[in-house]
Amino acid sequence: MPAPSASVQDIDRVASVLAACLPALHRALERRVVRDFPSPKPPEGQVALLRFVAQQEGATVREAAEALMMKPNNVSAMVSQLTKRGLIERKQDAADKRIVHLYLTAMAQRELAEVRRIEETHIARALHSLTDGEIGALGSVTGALTSLTRHLHSAAL
Question: Residue 100 and residue 67: Cα distance in Å, rounded?
Answer without folding.
Answer: 16
